[in-house]
Amino acid sequence: MDDHASIARRRPARLLIGLSVLCLAVTVPAGSGEGPAERKEAVRVAKKVEKADKGARQTEEEREALRRFQEGVAEYAELHARLVARLGTPESVAAQKALAHALAASRAKARPGDIFRPESEPVFRRLIAEQLEGPDALDARRTLLEGNPRDERPLGSVVLRVNGEYPIGAPRSTVPPSVLLTLPPLPACLHYRFVGRELVLVDSVAGLIVDLLPAAAPDLSVS
Amino acid sequence: MAHAWFSRLLVVVGLTLCSAPAAPPSAAAPPVTCTLSLPGRDGSVRFAVVGDIGRDLRGRGDVAKEVAACHDAFRFDFVILLGDNVYGSDTPADMAKKFAIPYKPLLDAGVVFHAVLGNHDNPNERFYAPFNMGGERYYTFRAPAGGTAKPNEGGVRFFALDTGYLDKTQLDWLEKELKSSSGDWKISFFHHPLYSSGRTHGSALESRAVLEPLFVKHGVSAVFSGHDHLYERSRPQKGGIVYWVSGAGGSLRVGDLRATDTTSKGFDRDYQFMIVEITRDDLYFEAISRTGETIDSGVVHRPGTPAAVPATP
Hints:
The complex is a heterodimer of chains A (223) and B (313). With 223 residues, chain A is mainly alpha-helical.
């Protein structure tokens, strides 16, 4: 049987343990080191990425929608190459702006959905959701928020408009490898980027917004 | 009651420990001196590692002065920049103010910089001549000839990656380059750390999932990253690879390190950078604070080679 004295002796020790737990709970949020929990998460993430690398299952309709998306991409890449050949390699800021201006002028009538065609929208949303939803996707969601202009300290707001400029001062979202392995590949002149949950097709040299897909990503909460 | 008083004391102490902000680095300009204990062997490959120089004016300037002081004491040939090199606007005037002026003494001395992109960098920084990226988001180069860099083959080869956009094209390129490289040392550097105990970001697990198997398979020995604004050296991981986070070259998060069982050494009290020397199968490193203090040093052996000197744990 415990007497009062021994209980009194144990209380501070229990309090100390409780405080330690509280300290850990208070001071260990998102970023975490390689403890047992991270090791387990790393194994889950590796399996998830391996699966993504093997490619997602697609119906015939979805394949057709993505084929048409890639036709639009190829058409844009051709225009980009043609203008670079005419204007020269855009190594300076002035040359990059000139290229952006020429691209926008050539696509003056471009509208959202010209490349992310309506029939491809649900395919993109599904492919992205498969990589960003669920407990195994915590690292992917966290990654996507890093540099995401809607999450980072505002260094330059991004106005989402086809043929609009992706501001030089604005950060760029890191795109998780699993998402890039799943989505249709792009030529070097184009990148997928996220601004909030919106998927944006950005000209990686001219800094021009080429097309956008609203609400492409699911809820990006990491809590 | 005595135990009640003691319990209250514990609560106060505990909460203080939980919530006390870490002391910021001194505002006074640090003395610019540099004393290194690297071996300085003839023909060795010598370089500096500086990460995340882009944000704080004071930190960037102080670190640049200290790196230059270390170059006076120990001639190195090049610097690798670990991303987030320039925040915000990057007009020619901005690039001068944010990079070329603070690092002028090194540029004037012929030191070559090799940069990678971070999430705050404009991808077109790859065209900025002093960053020597050749217009590419990812690239490879051999350390300058001499010493461990043999005339045609072997030596030290670096693989600079863009971890903000690790697409299949880049991963295929990396595998091809790693496979065809006959470098004695293969070293990779990029922005997002595969192993980090930083609270703010931590380890990039998806990037680790795609990169680590390639590094292990093709004999990469050392990896340098930034992103978390602190210093950390990992214990050797799979394949004996040592991972460094050296991300406080101009941005700092005091108290952000939560050392874990992969941490061999960490530092999060002041800005920092590294100086590295490679001689045959040994990589000597020294991490230096803004004030010139050595915060970590040691030697790493190239995995699979006989140890000439004891490796640092």
